[in-house]
Write a structure and sequence with these properties.
- The chain is built from 19 helices and no strands.
- The chain is mainly α.
Length: about 400
């Protein structure tokens, strides 16, 4: 098994391979980042960043502030910018593991540690690859969430709020973590986050004019509202949120599908609230907070519409926690074997359901039934079964 002395060379090799892979991927397609850079270039010309013509028939859904950030990079070749972004994603992936470890007490890096580490990366690799293939933002979003929590724990409230506000402004999905901070009583951090969010809305007006900035934000809201209505029921095979799954399993009118989806969303959010209340009512253990964050991350791609496969990278903390439970648990009761079976189902639905393994014909047939979404859904009861008492953990002061 891997020895601690050989950990650094292995990590360097993994990073080097990912950096090379990033160059190949950026050169091969460019992914969705072409859309972001085109929006930035259009912003520089005071055009409509949310209207046609669209790059590769893909519409821009992110904020005007994000386009402003990318504006200086829009003067560089897309290929160069995309390599830099994918290299940043390599850093985010490895940094995430360090941030995860802050929630556990692991003084010795033995064989169990390396099994846990390797399996965690292996079981999330497909969704990491989807992010590299599409040159997407999900890895950054997950890193921003955990980095903001880390800064908050270190009492660096302003920096924590700044980072969370930035991620919320770019893509609204991290918003539930602001609500969680409020629930935990981090009122100062919440106030700063709201302040920075407003600043990020107003700031582009300094550079592009307040009138143009206001027009862009109105168009952004219209695009998001229209997208929510148009994707109440999704049929594209690229989509993986609940709005794309239900039509394949329930043959009912579209308006009933919409109602059913909202009921399921409310149910998932209610479970999250009950889960959070139960865990945080116990001793102030870091692992309980990690479990809450993992659950929120897990349900975000399910309840938000128009989510594609790369969004399931948000399952990384849940996978890490469940594998830690399996690897380090000394008590192998019924809950342990249930979690093992669920992880096995998840592995089949995600890792083993790829086109390279199943072949194109079987893959296309199976993909209609959204095995990736089903695999993610199975992780929810597994998280509820984990027992914090079997997990080595740290305590906050």
């Amino acid at each position: 098994m891997l020895k601690p002395s050989s950990e650094k060379p292995v990590r360097i090799l993994a990073i080097a391979l990912l950096l090379v892979y990033s160059i190949i991927q950026a050169y091969a397609s460019g992914g969705d980042f072409d859309v972001f850079l085109n929006a930035a270039a259009t912003l520089g010309k005071h055009g409509n960043i949310y209207g046609p013509p669209f790059v590769r028939d893909l519409q821009y859904f992110y904020s005007p502030f994000f386009a402003l950030i990318l504006l200086p990079f829009s003067y560089l070749p897309n290929f160069i910018v995309e390599i830099l972004w994918l290299w940043a994603n390599v850093f985010f992936i490895f940094r995430l593991w360090t941030l995860f470890l802050d929630y556990f007490d692991l003084p010795v890096r033995n064989n169990k540690y390396y099994i846990w580490c390797i399996l965690s990366y292996f079981l999330i690799a497909r969704f990491a690859q989807e992010n590299f293939l599409n040159v997407q933002m999900t890895i950054f979003m997950l890193w921003a969430v955990f980095e903001s929590f880390s800064l908050l724990h270190k009492k660096k409230i302003v920096w924590a709020a700044l980072l969370l506000a930035l991620s919320i402004n770019i893509k609204i999905m991290p918003l539930p973590f602001l609500i969680y901070w409020f629930y935990k009583g981090h009122y100062k951090a919440c106030a700063y986050t709201c302040l920075f969010t407003v600043l990020f809305i107003l700031l582009p007006g300094i550079f592009i004019g307040s009138g143009y900035n206001a027009m862009l934000h109105l168009q952004w809201w219209d695009v998001l509202s229209s997208n929510r209505q148009n994707n109440a029921v999704e049929t594209s095979q690229k989509m993986v949120s609940l709005s794309s799954v239900l039509p394949y399993y329930i043959n009912i009118p579209a308006e009933w599908v919409f109602l059913t989806l909202n009921i399921i969303r409310v149910l998932l959010i209610s479970v999250c609230l009950a889960f959070t209340r139960r865990l945080l009512a116990t001793e102030k253990q870091t692992i309980n907070e990690f479990k809450v964050i993992s659950y929120i991350c897990l349900v975000l791609p399910l309840i938000f519409p128009h989510q594609q496969k790369y969004s399931f990278f948000f399952a990384f903390p849940a996978i890490t926690l469940l594998l830690h439970h399996l690897v380090y648990s000394s008590k192998k009761g019924s809950g342990y074997y249930t979690i093992f079976c669920i992880i096995s189902i998840y592995t089949f639905c995600t890792v083993l359901s790829g086109k390279d393994i199943l072949g194109s014909r079987l893959y296309d047939m199976l993909d209609n039934y959204r095995p990736l979404t089903f695999g993610i859904l199975t992780l929810i009861p597994a998280l509820l079964l984990t027992n914090a008492s079997v997990v080595p953990q740290r305590k906050y002061n």
